[in-house]
Write a structure and sequence with these properties.
The chain contains 11 helices and 16 strands. It is α/β, with parallel strands linked by helices.
């Protein structure tokens, strides 16, 4: 079957399109993938910068969506079911995957296979950040940095579904339009964003900041928090990992917290099912929307990853295996 492997730790150029044997494991659910999501951790792995190193060559990808081919005895799923999958062990950038039953999720008719292919990592990470880490409350305001990226769009959709007001921070007018279409209550450009946020909140600041970017805007983010505000670190797509002068945390009783969703699942495996029980009804009803990703053919995986590297990607990126 067709797959995309990482053969060298030289960035996206280290990817290779290959043919490998199909997976066979009677204890797992076998799924023929329609598409697979592309995430920032995939980019980090191409240079050996991700916290979990894998032996080369390896198939990249953490998520995908497709149709069930076979199931083990006792499964609630059946061949032909439409599902999203997490394939963190063996990668998802391949035509067929065999995954643990606990990592397979039925998709409602409201979510296409293409949209479902890039849903799980970003949306479940954002839900974890808001629910488990920030412990959001009704009526709070959430500021989202990098709001036109994959994580940012997910944050706007999840926050809206939970009834939270959002402020999207973006870098261009084109990205501002996308953030507005994605349900942002307010949209501001990066230049002068702190002053605009102060004006929107009447000088109070925001309750929660979701930051997948990091870099030089981090200190201004701390200054933009309301009393008892929480800044949730989701990543460092801006490249620079910021530091915190902890005296700032004392001034308004603010907090800085990490949201390592994958690591949390290792300590509490049952949390994934609890998340899905919350989000599935929102998906089924249409309250939580999942937009279509920017889709690349799987033989253009280098281009897909490069769009993350140079930050030209808008919204979620995925690879087609059809």
């Amino acid at each position: 079957m067709h797959a995309v492997q990482l053969a060298e730790l030289i960035g996206p150029e280290g990817l290779r399109s290959v043919d490998i044997a199909e997976p066979t494991d009677p204890t797992r659910i076998v799924v023929d993938l329609h598409a697979a999501g592309v995430c920032f951790p995939d980019l980090l792995q191409t240079t050996g910068s991700y916290q979990m190193a894998r032996d080369l060559p390896c198939v990249l990808g953490l998520e995908g969506a497709g149709v069930v081919r076979s199931v083990p005895a006792g499964s609630d799923l059946s061949p032909g079911d439409r599902v999203a999958v997490l394939s963190t062990e063996d990668g998802s950038w391949q035509r067929t995957v065999a995954v643990k039953p606990s990592s397979v999720f039925p998709l409602p008719d409201s979510v296409s296979l293409t949209a479902g292919s890039g849903f799980l990592v970003n949306y479940l990470t954002v839900h974890f950040a808001l629910d488990e880490r920030a412990r959001y409350r009704a009526g709070e305001t959430v500021l989202v940095h990098g709001a036109a990226g994959g994580v940012g769009i997910a944050a706007l959709h999840v926050a809206a579904a939970l009834g939270l007001e959002t402020i999207a921070v973006v870098s261009t007018p084109e990205k501002a339009a996308l953030a507005a279409e994605s349900g942002a209550s307010h949209v501001v450009l990066v230049d002068g964003w702190k002053d605009q946020v102060r004006e929107i909140t009447n000088g109070r600041g925001v309750d929660i900041i979701l930051d997948p970017v990091g870099g030089d805007r981090f200190t201004d983010s701390l200054r933009s928090l309301a009393p008892n505000g929480r800044l949730i670190v989701l990543g460092f797509t801006g490249g620079e990992i910021p530091t915190v002068k902890v005296n700032r945390l004392l001034l308004n009783n603010i907090s800085v917290m990490g949201a390592g969703w994958g690591e949390y699942l290792r300590t509490d495996p049952g949390y994934l099912a609890r998340q899905w029980n919350v989000l599935y009804p929102l998906l089924e009803s249409g309250v939580l929307r999942v937009p279509e990703p920017t889709l690349y053919p799987s033989d253009r995986a280098v281009d897909a990853l490069t769009s993350l590297k140079d930050r030209s990607a808008v919204g979620k990126v995925a690879l087609s295996f059809e």
